[in-house]
Each structure stands twice: as structure tokens, then as C-alpha cells.
Amino acid sequence: MAKCAICEKGVHYGNNVSHSHRRSNRVWKSNIKRVSCKVNGVPQKLYVCTSCLKSGKVERA
After folding, report:
1. pLDDT digits (tens, 9 = 90+) for 16-60
2. How far is Cα 5 from Cα 26, in angstroms, rounded to an integer?
3. Which pTM does this prediction carry?
4. Would you give the distance in Å from CA 10 to the centre of its chain?
5. Does residue 29 fall inside a structural domain?
6. What is the DSSP annotation of 10-61?
């Protein structure tokens, strides 16, 4: 679910690295919001990342 409908940005995976350099898995989640947007002139609820909202790629309804 945590995926932008516009740019397809989703979760990123990596490692936590401790001071002793032991590694454990971790996840970076994108800042995704559920917003009402106009799609072909019709208001529709979409999951959109905040960078797409800020850049104006989405017209809010």
C-alpha cells in the first residue's frame, strides 16, 4: 500500500549498522498521504507522496 500512485515511490530496504559494525535489516518508508485528487475531472482518493504534492504533479480536489 505504501506506494505513490504518481511516481511509484515505495519502501526502501537497507541495514542498521551498529558501532561494532553488526548489521540488522531496516526499512525506510516513503511519506505517503491519502489525498483527494482530480483524475480526468473526477475527484478520486489516491495515495501520493509528499514530494509529488509539493511539486504540483497532483491537482487536489
Report:
1. 999 999 999 999 999 999 999 999 999 999 999 999 999 999 999
2. 24
3. 0.78
4. 5
5. yes
6. --EEEEEE-TT--EEEEEE---EEEEEEEETTEEEEEEEEHHHHHHT-S-B-
